[in-house]
Design brief:
Layout (H helix, E strand, L loop, with lengths): L3 H9 L12 H28 L8 H28 L7 H29 L10 H77 L4 H20 L5 E3 H19 L3 E7 L7 E3 L4 H12 L6 E10 L2 E8 L14 H14 L4 E6 L5 E8 L3 E3 L6 E3 L1
Parallel strand pairs: 2-4
Antiparallel strand pairs: 1-3, 4-5, 5-7, 6-7, 8-9
Length: 391
């Protein structure tokens, strides 16, 4: 399990781009940019057309669209230069005064370049009557009519780039934080699980040690069943959740061990609905609850005891229930939970949050009743990989 510091380092080394980003995302961005520039061109073409109708020289719709598209598509062609300059000379950095001066100079230069190209194209394709306007008059008209607007356009594009860059950094930070939280959550769950396994192992080995002095065959049987149980546990690897069917198989191996220890004093019944068997449950979630019932219920009584385990769906949730007929909880006393129940509560809270519940109370007919409620999620196995998919 990784140390939290190493998880922080790993999160810092995560790639900036989302790994799920599709290869055609660049084309999608360019398409959206073209659509945006076209929308701006149409807006100003519409404005030019209608405002000119109240003047002595109305502009036709064709000329309005042609002039507007030429104007804004030229700015679209210049925008990569502006965005690169904005990325290199950020106005929110420490050297912001120097960078502002750089952008001020570049805004004047690019506005002049835009006006020169615009004027040359307009003159070349004769969108102005050449017999009534000279090149000097056209240049003067462009300066007074478009130069100030061009400088404003440059700075709007700089601010737009800063806004998009800020949003991109915010999304990257969110992605890194979510990945780090997922890694930390997995690490915490594994830590809780690793804390449970020695707890169960030590109790079992103590029971084997006690049996060795009075029933060697029973001790050997318990060791063999402990070996089977540990083998199944290791086969799951680091799985956080498993199907309920597999969890009950684990539990049966554990109960074989305990029944060897208690012989006829321990009776167990398991009732699970058919449609609940494929439900996803935390790995080794039932074993500490059953162990707690045996330790505080069956082991304290000199007579035979019974443990009932049930599982069924209930309103979109999975209800797991472990009931014993032991002495029950102390009346009016302080209720203290051991390692098993404490870690079980922590694990389900980590996995499901407020959608989960663990309730410990006295059963109606004596003994203790533990109810575990988690969201129901069906699990299907992929034949080719053996992986689990939530439905």
């Amino acid at each position: 399990m990784e140390h939290p510091d190493s998880l922080m380092d790993a999160a810092a080394r995560l790639p900036d781009r989302d790994p799920d980003e599709r290869p055609d995302s660049a084309w999608r961005r360019w398409s959206l940019a073209l659509l945006g520039w076209t929308a701006v061109g149409l807006f100003f073409a519409n404005r030019l057309f209608f405002t000119s109708q109240w003047t002595d020289t109305p502009v036709s719709w064709t000329d309005a669209v042609s002039w507007s598209f030429l104007d804004w598509y030229l700015w679209a062609a210049l925008s990569p230069i502006i965005f690169k300059a904005s990325a290199r000379f950020g106005i929110l950095r420490r050297a912001s005064i120097r960078n502002v001066l750089v952008h001020l100079s570049l805004s004047l230069l690019l506005t002049c370049l835009h006006s020169a190209i615009y004027g040359a194209i307009v003159w070349k394709v004769r969108w102005v009557p050449q017999d009534s306007a000279t090149i000097t008059e056209l240049a003067q008209g462009l300066f007074f009519g478009k130069f100030h607007m061009g400088v404003v356009t440059y700075w709007v594009l700089v601010l737009l780039h800063h806004a998009l860059d800020y949003y991109r950094r915010y999304r990257e930070k969110e992605l890194r934080v979510s990945r780090m939280e997922a890694q930390l959550a997995t690490a915490q769950l594994q830590a809780l699980r690793m804390q449970l396994q020695p707890h169960f192992l030590f109790n079992t080995l103590n029971a084997v040690s006690a049996l060795m002095h009075r029933d060697v065959n029973a001790a050997e049987t318990m060791l063999a069943r402990l070996s089977d149980f540990l083998r199944l546990a290791l086969e799951t690897g680091t799985a956080v959740e498993v199907p309920l069917k597999q969890e009950l198989e684990f539990l049966e191996h554990y109960l074989y061990i305990e029944q060897t220890r208690f012989a006829d004093r321990l009776q167990v019944s398991i009732h699970a609905d058919r449609d609940a068997m494929d439900a996803s449950v935390p790995n080794l979630i039932l074993q500490p609850i059953v162990e707690n019932a045996i330790r505080h219920g069956i082991a304290r009584s000199s007579t035979a005891g019974r443990i009932e385990i049930a599982a069924h769906r209930e309103n979109g949730s999975l209800l797991l229930r472990v009931t014993d007929d032991g002495p029950g909880l102390p009346r009016g006393g302080v209720q203290r939970e051991g390692v098993g129940l404490t870690n079980t509560r922590a694990r389900i809270r980590q996995l499901y949050g407020a959608a989960s519940r663990l309730q410990l109370e006295n059963a109606s007919n004596g003994g203790t009743d533990v109810q575990l409620v988690i969201p129901y999620r069906a699990v299907s196995l992929k034949p080719e990989t053996g992986g689990r998919v939530h439905e």
